[in-house]
Every structure is written in C-alpha cells, then in structure tokens.
Amino acid sequence: MKIEKTISNWGNFPKLKASEYLFENLHKTQGILEAEESVLARGNGRCYGDAALNNAVVSTLSLKHFLSFDETEGTLTCEAGVLFSDILNLVVPKGFFLPVTPGTKFITVGGAIAADVHGKNHHKDGCFSEFVTQLKLVIDTGETIICSRTENTTLFWETIGGMGLTGIIVEATFQLKRIANSYIYVESIKAKNLTEIMALFEASEDWTYTVAWIDCLQKGKHIGRSILMRGEHARPEQLSNKQQKEPFKLSPTKAIKIPFNFPRFVLNTLSVKAFNWLYYNKQTPKTIKKVTHFEPFFYPLDSLLEWNRIYGKSGFIQYQFVIPKGVGKEALQDILQTIAKSNQGSFLAVLKLFGKNNPKAYNSFPIEGYTLALDFKVNKKLYKLVPELDAIVLKYKGRIYRAKDSLSNARLLDYVKVHNTKFNSVQNRRINKATP
Amino acid sequence: MIILGANSEIAREFTELMLQKQSFVTVYLLSSNAEQLVTFKKHLEVKYKTEVKIIPFDLMGQIKLDFSAMEYNLVFSAAGYLGDTEAGVIAKTEDMSRIMAINYSGLVHFLNAVANDLLEKENGTIICISSVAGERGRQSNFIYGSAKAGITAYLSGLRNFLYKKNIHVMTVKPGFMDTKMTRGMDLPGPLTINPKKAAHLIYSGYKKKKNTIYISGIWRLIMFVIRNIPEIIFKKLSL
C-alpha cells in the first residue's frame, strides 16, 4: 500500500510530495513497477539534495534482516535496509568492523552501494564497493537478478554508484574488516594554511584513516587553516586499563536529540566564525595524540540526533567536489577564496585526499585528488555561490558527489552512466534535462 | 519460547527484545504464513545464535502440536485478525468465522493445549495480546470486539486457574499501533505507539508479573471513560 507524504533527504532541501510504498515482497513490487511511471528505492534518507527522491519511492526500511554471518571469514549477508549502525552492533563485539564507512552510521547497505560511499580510508582501501562481493537486484521486469564480480558483471558495476537507477537492491554480501578492539589511535595536527595541510596529507599517506577539518572563512595567508586527524586501529597495548576491560565496547556516549528546528538567526557568519575559532584554538599544542573510541572518531555528529534541525526549516545543502591531485592547490585556493568572500559560513568543512579510483566502478564519485565537503544553509545567496564554485570545479576538471547534490551544473555530475528508464530520480531527470 | 503470530511486527519486536534480555534454547515461530518467516528465522540465528524452528500453524484448523516435546517456558501470542470491515455491513459470513477462530475459539484451543502442557512442566508464562476493543462492543467492529472480550475473559479465568501452579498469564490490551496494517491510516499521534515501544512495555509488564497491561497506559483511562458511558447514551454514539 502506498501513502502520500512529503519526503526530503538529510538537508531538508528540496522537499517533494511523493507516493511512498513499503517493500513487502516481489509480487507486490512487480505491481508497483507496473503501476508507476518510474520508481526509485529509498533507504534511510541520509543522503542530501535531490538524490533518493522520486514521485514514487519504495522504502527498503522493511528489509532489515541479517541473513548470514561467517565469523571466520568475516563475510556478512544482509537485506538492503539494514543500517550500518545495526551492523556495528552485531559485528564489533565479535571483532569485526565496517571496511569503509562514511561520517554517519545511519545509512542503509543499499544506499551505501547505490552511492558507493567512501570514508577516511579511501586513499588506502577505496570505496565500499571494493568489499561488496554480491548483490541481489530487482530490475524493471520485476525479476530478481544476482550480480557479482563473476556473474552478471555488467549490471553489478552499473549498480555500484548507480544511484538506484538500475533497480532496487534488496540484498548484499560484503567483506568485513577484522579489528582487535573498538579503539582508534588518533593524532590531531594543526595546519596554519593550505600548503601545510596538503603536505600533511602527503606525509600521512601510510595512515589508514586521514581527514581534515578546515576553516573556510579564513582569508589571505590563513587560507586553508585546518586540523588533520589521522588514525589507526589501536594496538592492545595502547589501550588504557579502563579501555582494556571492555575492548569491544559499543557506543560510549548517549545520544542527544535536537528537539526542534533552530530559528534562522542562530546560524550566521558570526556564529560560524566563533565556532571555527574555538574549534581551532581549543587545541593548543601543534599535535595531540590520544586513543579514542571509534564512535567520536568516525561519527562525531551521530551523537547529536537530528542535528540537521540546527539549520532551521529551510534546510541546507552539502557541496562536495573532488579535483585532480595535480591541480589541488590552485583549485582549493580559488574555491576557499570564493567561499570566504561570499561570507556563507560552513560548519565543519571536511577535506580529504582520495586515493586512486577503481576504473571498473565507473559510476563511483571518487577520483584521485582532493575532496572538500561543505554545508551551506539554504538562502538566496546560495543560488549565486553554487554556480561560482561549479565554474571553478569545472575549470579544474573536477566532479560533484551525486549523493549530496541539488543545485550543481549537470556537467559535473554526468559521470554516472546508467541505461534504464523505469528507475529514475528527481536528480537524474534534472541532470539529463540539462545535458541532452 | 513459542511465538504465535510471528509475522506480526509486535511479535517480531518482542522476540528480538527477549533474545537481547535472556537466552532461549529454541525459538518456535508459529504462523499460518510460514514462508514469510524464513528471513526472520535467518536474522535471529545470525544475530542471537539461537535455534529457531518454523512451525506452519493455522488457528482455523486443528491443533496437532505436541507441546510436551517442545522446550519452552514462555508463550507469546500476537494472533489476531481484525477482519475486512465494510460500512453498513455487520460482517461477511466467511470473514466472521475467521474473526471468531483467530481471536477466540482457535486461540482458546491453542492456549488450553499450552496450559495443559505447562502444568506438566510446572512453570511458565503466557502472554496474550487481546485488545481494548474487547471492553465494549461498538458498531464499527463488534464481531472482533466480542471475540476479544471473550479472550480477555478466558485469560482472566486461565490466570486464576493457573495461579497456584506457578504459571503466570498476562493480558495485553493495545490501543492504536503503528504497523504495516495501519500504515497510511490517520491515527491520533499521542495515542499511537510503535511496535518497538510496545514490545518494551510488554517486557516490563512481564518482568513485573503484571496481570493486565494497556499499551500505552493512557488507554486505561480512555477505556475507563468508555466503559462508564451509560448505555442509553452509548447506543446513540458513532464510535
């Protein structure tokens, strides 16, 4: 049965009136495919922009079952609506971890494959798809197709990063990573400017996890002021006595919920500036070394449930691009200057150096180079800023992450190639319309 | 642990919660639609490393289960059938026997068989989902309501009968619940509970050995009011 409701992704922008079905069984799904002009699978709605939005969506949140877990090999098979958080709860106590994880654990497995998510270890391990061995897909005819690296390979690679446009992912098998405990050894290093942070990334290539927080309101010689965080799964002897008592501990802190949408004035250039100043200056030494639980390291914002409400009712966008490594410095300089000039503050802008891409996963967003993810509150000025940023990314031959986009130039997004008409999204129609 | 009506969301949430709280040698999942239980069985096996057995079972038919061979001390029934209600029709004949069997007569046969076996085993708990609909017959669903009234009366008698034998019976009376069945219905938010929260309330009632619980508690008050409306007024209402 379908219900009519307004849906939007994590940024609460844009909003769409849609028919939402719940995935029940194959027979009913066939009926939906026949009845609707186009269909799109939708997981937990943790992407941004107009990805995962369509006039008719099939929610996969009912597909929440684990199907098998081989604890010697570390292979897991589950339905597509299982959340990363459910997986962590199951596998961490048994000494396993997600091979790749984005900055939130509230995403579904289906969504992770459709967007081919990346994490802080991209330069070492690549995207999530590197660990996916098999998936089950319901295609336009209503049939279920099993695809893997050896079977129906074309469809397999088309679906990886295919933004749900090849069908409904209902099940997946993937390889987990073995860990000795729940803790991460982290070094946080302050960088005064762009040259410093880029040198730090290069010097940290051997670290499993690297990411930087960057203050994008800085101008002139301070441009690129940032803090690099690099981490490794902690060795047993690095743990404190307390940590050793419970080596595979789950969630150490209780989550807090943001109770309502913040009024518009809360977030302005001044408050972002103050926040960024505090964030940078609360760390006084150049380098801090500590052993922390994986939660605050990977999911700093997940302990603030519904944190998107901070941006108020009108919502926000995420702007994430990647530019080839060779032109990294000029491009970042141009972009950071443009942002600082616009005075559109972004909390916790995140910078990362991607490693080489897997050419087989041709729909995946990452290419070797620098990626920067920014949040912007939705307002009038944004419609001027985004094209300016797009022009720079285009000039340096970069691209934009589809899982986050809503306003960018289609030429930055047309790297995703999928041949299908039954499965479609608001985003895909927007991009196709602009690039005939 | 025996779970009857194992395809319902409340049964599934309760089963998972119980497995998180304590361990069971075997979980028996009973449903008339056994095929649909396969993924849930796998899920429980992966997550809780427990043995799960699926038993196809229909309350419309004869009870042919040998409970003495089963290892359990907790029985949870979420069996229920609301029926295909249609405005201006009392009930469709074929639907009526189904409503009566699943909510009352078949269920009584089942619970009797279980109770007899638990008497042999000399301890155990029976948790059965009835409904607030059984507290007063209303024009909108009184076949269902009367069957629920019957099962509520049966459960209170059974509780009384088993009290000295170390077997506890808990009656659960849900109000509105947000499930697959009620998806898209316009239910009043503050009075509606999701299956996960309901499972937690049932679990806490079970731990405290409650006799009858309402989910949620506000329904105790609502039903008190509804029960006490004089019939002369009640018969004129369209509830």
From TrEMBL, chain A:
What SUPFAM superfamilies does the annotation carry?
A: FAD-binding/transporter-associated domain-like
Which PANTHER family does this chain map to? D-ARABINONO-1,4-LACTONE OXIDASE, L-GULONOLACTONE OXIDASE
Domain named FAD-binding PCMH-type: residues:
13-179
* Organism domain of life: Bacteria
Q: What is this protein called?
A: FAD/FMN-containing dehydrogenase
Q: Its Gene Ontology molecular function terms?
A: FAD binding; oxidoreductase activity, acting on the CH-OH group of donors, oxygen as acceptor
What InterPro entries does its record include? FAD-bd_PCMH (IPR016166), FAD-bd_PCMH-like_sf (IPR036318), FAD-bd_PCMH_sub2 (IPR016169), FAD_lactone_oxidase-like (IPR010031), Oxid_FAD_bind_N (IPR006094)
Gene3D superfamilies linked:
3.30.465.10
UniProtKB/TrEMBL annotation, chain B:
**Superkingdom of origin:** Bacteria
SUPFAM superfamilies with a match to the protein in the record: NAD(P)-binding Rossmann-fold domains
Question: Cell wall biogenesis/degradation among the record's keywords?
Answer: no
Concerning InterPro entries, the annotation shows: NAD(P)-bd_dom_sf (IPR036291), Sc_DH/Rdtase_CS (IPR020904), SDR_fam (IPR002347)
Provide GO CC annotations from the record.
membrane
Which keywords does the record carry?
Oxidoreductase
Gene Ontology MF: a single term = oxidoreductase activity
Question: What family does the database annotate?
Answer: Belongs to the short-chain dehydrogenases/reductases (SDR) family.
Its name, as the record gives it, is Short-subunit dehydrogenase
